[in-house]
Q: What sequence folds into this?
């Protein structure tokens, strides 16, 4: 993704957030695959009033990504991109599972650092895959989405189809925020960090 595309998304997010003065909204880091930029922009235009979005994530241009020190990399992602966000929202397209930076962003979201505690986590399908099960779920997100014998959610994170209303999304974000204290013991973040992006059909 180019710098101008990143900046455009951040501008869209800021304009959407400015359409309301609601102080109860949460700061949300939005993780996504660059291939879905157009859909992410539409999502932010439609739902960006319900949260304060941080959308600029890790790219190949970051000078820290080739470090051998995983802890250093994850701390840099936490401070430079996730910042003071309290919830991470993964917007899922058909190839989100393949992008290594999504894995790194989720990994950083699920660990305490010197500067912050874990984020709540939720995954939401973009319209292009909404209601389908054809696109694989990003592996680290999938580790945190567990179902009970009757299909009930019993893991740390939640997984949703595209929201039908702003109210629905607002409720999902609030649930993820509360999970930071209510479901912290359920976090699964032991998977090895993805070293490279996979080829997506």
A:
């Amino acid at each position: 993704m180019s710098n101008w595309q990143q900046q455009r998304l951040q501008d869209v997010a800021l304009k959407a957030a400015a359409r309301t003065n609601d102080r109860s909204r949460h700061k949300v880091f939005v993780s996504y695959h660059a291939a879905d930029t157009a859909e992410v922009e539409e999502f932010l235009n439609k739902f960006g009033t319900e949260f304060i979005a941080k959308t600029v994530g890790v790219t190949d241009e970051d000078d820290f990504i080739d470090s051998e020190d995983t802890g250093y990399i994850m701390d840099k992602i936490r401070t430079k991109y996730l910042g003071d966000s309290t919830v991470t929202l993964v917007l899922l397209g058909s190839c989100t599972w393949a992008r290594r930076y999504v894995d790194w962003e989720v990994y950083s979201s699920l660990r305490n650092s010197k500067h912050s505690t874990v984020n709540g986590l939720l995954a939401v399908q973009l319209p292009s895959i909404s209601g389908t099960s054809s696109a694989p779920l990003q592996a680290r997100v999938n580790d945190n989405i567990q179902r009970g014998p009757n299909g009930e959610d019993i893991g740390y994170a939640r997984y949703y189809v595209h929201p039908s209303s702003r109210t629905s999304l607002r409720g999902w974000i609030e649930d993820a925020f509360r999970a930071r204290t209510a479901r912290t013991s359920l976090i699964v973040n032991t998977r090895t960090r993805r070293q490279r992006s996979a080829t997506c059909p």
Notes: The radius of gyration is 16 Å. The beta strands are 27-31, 52-54, 87-92, 120-125, 158-160. The first strand starts at residue 27 and ends at 31.
